[in-house]
Write a structure and sequence with these properties.
With about 260 residues, the protein is an alpha+beta fold. It has a domain of about 180 residues. About 45% of the residues lie in helices and about 30% in strands. Helix 1 crosses helix 6. The mean pLDDT is about 90.
């Protein structure tokens, strides 16, 4: 009798495990879509400052970038990025160092009292190179795991514990000195898009997703102009977000970032 009960418990446990591991990826496989040309609307950050905490965040970042020699180039909103959530992007460029930067924020508004609920925010500094093996070097403070694997031609260094943008820019410069990319450094938005950040972002979205076709994570559906996860992509993108995998990977990423900062210092 005890053996039958133990067997039943084992079957129940295995059933729960299978559901836990495969139901979420199945939903992602059938429902997740990445638009090839998402809607991007320019807005005036001075005249249309985001409310509450979101606005204070943007103003603080804006001041820090100005002190580092970056000029604000454009502010864009993605109205249909996520239901009930506003996604905002602000672009900067440093003509002297030929680096560009982006700050992004996602926030929601309470429909009752219009209070702001911050979802996520980050800053990224980017250097691009022509005619070299390394096309781009990214330095950011993203505080979440990436959905996609890295691809050849691009390196991303993450310091999620940093809020000081001068320190982030310092580490970015040290990484450039260490990695010594071969090729001419340039501001892509100026040379290829005549300063049009909307056209630039549409190209970046498509290039990012096209690279993930090569990794086997995505495929393109021309009829709907969307990128969709493959079975492999749905599995790995979802499993990275499940407990305890997410917590293990995140702690490892934070520890790696702090070690890298110490090495560069």
């Amino acid at each position: 009798m005890s053996g039958d009960f133990d067997l039943l418990l084992l079957k129940c446990a295995l059933t729960v495990l299978v559901l836990y591991l495969f139901v979420p990826p199945t939903l992602i496989y059938f429902l997740q879509r990445f638009r090839a040309n998402p809607t991007l609307i320019p807005f005036d950050l001075e005249q249309q400052t985001p409310p509450g905490e979101a606005g204070r965040y943007f103003m603080e970042v804006d001041q820090q970038f100005a002190a580092l020699g970056f000029d604000r180039r454009a502010a864009l909103t993605l109205p249909d990025a996520v239901p009930n959530v506003k996604a905002l992007l602000v672009f900067y460029a440093n003509r002297r160092s030929k680096d560009v930067a982006l700050t992004a924020i996602m926030y929601g508004l309470n429909p009752v009292d219009q209070t702001v609920a911050m979802k996520s925010s980050y800053v990224e500094i980017l250097a691009r190179f022509q005619d070299g093996e390394l096309e781009a070097l990214h330095t950011n403070n993203v505080r979440m795991l990436g959905s996609f694997p890295t691809t050849p031609g691009s390196r991303t260094y993450r310091f999620p514990h940093l809020e000081d943008l001068s320190r982030l820019f310092e580490l970015h410069q040290k990484l450039l000195e260490r990695d010594r990319p071969v090729g001419r450094k340039y501001i892509r938005t100026d040379e290829e898009f005549d300063g049009d950040c909307v056209a630039y972002m549409h190209t970046v979205f498509r290039e990012t997703y096209d690279r993930q076709i090569g990794t086997g994570y995505l495929y393109f559906q021309p009829s709907q102009q969307v990128y969709r996860p493959t079975i492999k992509g749905a599995l790995f993108m979802t499993w990275r977000e499940l407990f305890p995998i997410k917590q293990i990977l995140w702690e490892g990423a934070k520890a790696q970032a702090k070690r890298l900062e110490q090495e560069l210092s």
